[in-house]
Amino acid sequence: MKKITLFVSFVIFSLSSLAFERSEPRDIVLLWNELHNFQRPHEFRDLYASRVLFYGKWRDGQDCYLVKKKFLTPDFSQIIISDIQLRYFSGDIVKCDFEKQVKYKSKVKTHSCYLLLKRTGGKYYIMGESDLETDAKLGVSLAFLGDEKRGSIKVTTLLIIAVPGLLGFAYYFFVRKKPIKPAAIVKASRDYLVSYESSSQRSSTLSLDEEKGRQFENWVASNFDQTYFKVIEWRSDKYHNGIYAEASKYPDFEINMTTVSHNTNFAVECKWRRGFSKNRILWAEDYQIDNYREYEKLSGKPVFVVIGIGGVPSSPETLYVVPLRHITSRYLTYEFLQRYIKRRPLFFYDAEKKVLR
């Protein structure tokens, strides 16, 4: 029975790696969307490839950035209103199709759009950007993409890795009667035991609420793109007999954002709650709020409260990002939080406006 369980676990792990790899193109699309709303065109320079099929014309990536710089104004905003469909082609190219709704001043319009992403040096860059209406007017053809890979690049990669592994596991568990463990397997087993013991120790020393809090912190941290963001301080809540590190009373994270034009820090406090009670949540005690405000005043770094509601800590159903300076009570109502709802998990910081979204 143990052998079957281990074999099934390996299959599940292999398939989950496919989902993880497929998330990267979607993250690029979400970041591209966020940059429009922040009116931060200079960030596009890190997203565009050297040559881009930009609304029907091949342009230099630098030219695309200049177009964005001229075009984007505070009157412009956009949201993605559909799922992002991924289609894979040869040459490590992914076509991302989606619907977006654009608002300019009082006008609202919906477009069927796409981005072409090309993987170079282990990272995706935008090599194409347009919408179907523009392509139809200009007679643009994407025939150069060739035939779509129905199984996708990532599935092929998965098969190359997984099939030999699955066969090896099947042979090891079901054919050989007395398998001899190679040194690598022995080492991996020891590493797993050390990891398991460490996890067990942590679980025994943390309360259930503390463990949930840590899981939500992990989820929040994972949604900051490491290209731009670095967690430079991750404070622990550990204490013993009333003795604790002074810094632990401050926000969970201090994060640095480094871009072409900015190098700045801000802080994040993470709170996960199962749901609303009488249309509100108790997000913190008064003394905790005083500590966060003290930190913001002394450090000069803005503090943001990231609140997850429902679901599980590692995958909240609803997410809110509230500037500490906007909070006046330890209770936050449902109506108040709706002004700060976050539609996408990926975070981005507007250093000029001091807004985390």
Structure characterization notes:
- The protein has 357 residues and is α+β, with helices and mostly antiparallel strands.
- It has 2 domains: 2-153, Roll (Nuclear Transport Factor 2, Chain: A), CATH 3.10.450.50; 208-356, Trna Endonuclease, Chain: A, domain 1.
- 38% of the residues lie in helices and 32% in strands.
- The protein contains 8 helices and 19 strands.
- The chain has helices at 2-38, 61-71, 132-138, 152-175, 183-205, 208-222, 286-299, 334-337, and strands spanning 48-54, 57-60, 76-80, 85-89, 93-104, 107-120, 123-131, 229-234, 239-240, 243-244, 253-258, 263-273, 280-282, 303-312, 315-323, 331-333, 341-342, 349-350, 355-356.
- The strands form 5 sheets. Strands 1, 2, 3, 4, 5, 6 and 7 form a 7-stranded mixed sheet that branches. Strands 8-11-12-14-15-17 form a 6-stranded mixed sheet, with helices on both faces. Strands 9-10 form a two-stranded antiparallel sheet.
- Residues 8-22, 152-158, 177-205 and 239-244 have low confidence and may be disordered.
Keywords:
Nuclear Transport Factor 2, Chain: A, 2 domains, alpha+beta, Trna Endonuclease, Chain: A, domain 1, 357 residues, 8 helices, single chain, six-stranded mixed beta sheet, seven-stranded mixed beta sheet
Cα radius of gyration in angstroms: 24 Å
Helical fraction equals 25-40%
> How many helices in DSSP terms?
8
Please indicate the count of domains.
2
Secondary structure tally: strands: 19
Poorly predicted spans? 8-22, 152-158, 177-205, 239-244
Structural class: alpha+beta
Tell me the series of helices and strands, N- to C-terminal. HEEHEEEEEHHHHEEEEEEHEEEHEEE
Q: In CATH, what is the class of the largest domain?
A: Alpha Beta
End-to-end separation? 47 Å
CATH architecture verdict of the largest domain: Roll
On the 0-100 scale, what is the average pLDDT? 80
Shape verdict: elongated
Work out the strand percent. Answer: 25-35%
Describe the largest sheet.
Answer: 7 strands, mixed
Per CATH, what is the topology of the largest domain? Nuclear Transport Factor 2, Chain: A
